[in-house]
Design goal:
The structure is a single chain. The protein has 221 residues and is mainly alpha-helical. It has one domain. The protein contains eleven helices and no strands.
Amino acid sequence: MDALQWIITVAVSLASGTVGGATLAPKIGMRTELGRRHLEAEIAIRGVLQTYRDAMKYRHAEVVIRQNYPADYVSLESQVRLAEEIIQKLPDLPRRRRQKIRRHLKILVGAWTTGYGEARAFLPEGFRTPQSEESWLNKRIADMVKANDASAAERGLLGRVNSDVIDQAAFETAVAAMDDMIALVSVDRQPTLRPRELWDRRTKRKGIESRVAEHEQDRDT
């Protein structure tokens, strides 16, 4: 288990355990069983996203000093684990919220990583082996090389952060996307907002899809 995996695991434990219970017990206690499951899932997803985001931001200083990316920085494996942790909690959310989170997750980590996270999120304990996990990841890397896959939909925002060239704009866009996802599972969220308004809240930023498209266009020119 590497450092990032450990951080993600601890975040889920803390968010759904003593820390979450201490700070949100009144809210949880007033809800029905279904409402309690919804709230606990929100807490867990928010904890995973916040921890991944903060770890990425903390290590970004190392990236700037080194002028290159460490091999394990926002690695494909860590992205798959991030997707898996979030997907495991989606069944406990209302249907519309599930759809929003999944759609935003695909923007963040890409279509393939989201699909892989879904494929392994609910496998029985002990079913996966280090060999099978390595085979999956090696196949993905080989497919990417063979197809020269650099599309936004496949790589996702984090896929462009984890690249050979330091891309500050991609880093900032990925952080903003995680902030927006966290807002979707905020305890005090505004449930009447449309998805586009959630992406554009407060700072009136352009929608995340528009920013991704502009970023891709800038890289091509």
